[in-house]
């Protein structure tokens, strides 16, 4: 259902720098979020928290993902995308950025805007979740 991995952060950085010429308004936000995720993953606490999120996300939001998938028009292709979530010290979602923006990604973003996870290592903590649905 979802696929996680650090090489994706590097691949995403390259794709972001090439592809965002069309999305100049969001470029700085996405680059800042990516840099924060990268910095977080360089710490042992960040690595542990990333593993925890890898378990929590499907436990808490699988039903939302399914609802979003069912809401799509028949035959709609679901392409992989990345979500960048900014969490406060209590784990409440403060902001969600998705790239690329699609109907499916925006549906999940809406579902996560009121979301909550375990408390992160610090306030204003960015995480990345790569979504790639398996057929």
Overview of the structural elements:
The protein is α+β, with helices and mostly antiparallel strands. The protein has 4 helices and 3 strands. Strands 2-1-3 form a 3-stranded antiparallel sheet, with helices on both faces. Helix 1 runs antiparallel to helix 2 and helix 3 packs across helix 4. The chain is globular, with a radius of gyration of 14 Å. About 12% of the residues have low confidence.
Write a concise synopsis of the structure shown:
By secondary structure, the chain is of the alpha+beta class. It has 4 helices and 3 strands, in the order αααββαβ.
The percent range for strand residues is 15-25%
Major sheet strand order: 2-1-3
Low-pLDDT residue spans: 10-25
Describe the global form: globular
* Span of the ends, CA to CA: 9 Å
Number of E strands: 3
Radius of gyration from CA coordinates? 14 Å
Mean pLDDT: 86
Structural class: alpha+beta
Biggest beta sheet summary: 3 strands, antiparallel
Helix content: 40-55%
Summarize the topology.
Elements: H1 7-19, H2 24-41, H3 44-71, E1 81-87, E2 93-99, H4 103-112, E3 125-131
Antiparallel strand pairs: 1-2, 1-3
Structural descriptors:
135 residues, alpha+beta, three-stranded antiparallel beta sheet, 4 helices, 16% strand, globular
């Amino acid at each position: 259902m979802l696929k996680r991995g650090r090489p994706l952060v590097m691949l995403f950085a390259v794709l972001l720098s090439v592809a965002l010429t069309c999305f100049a308004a969001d470029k700085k936000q996405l680059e800042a979020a990516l840099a924060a995720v990268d910095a977080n993953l360089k710490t042992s606490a960040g690595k542990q928290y990333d593993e925890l999120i890898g378990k929590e996300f499907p436990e808490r939001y699988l039903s939302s993902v399914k609802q979003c998938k069912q809401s799509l028009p028949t035959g709609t292709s679901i392409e992989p995308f990345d979500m960048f979530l900014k969490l406060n010290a209590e784990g409440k979602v403060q902001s969600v950025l998705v790239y690329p923006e699609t109907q499916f990604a925006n549906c999940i973003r809406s579902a996560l805007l009121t979301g909550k996870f375990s408390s992160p290592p610090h306030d204003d903590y960015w995480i990345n979740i790569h979504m790639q649905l398996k057929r």
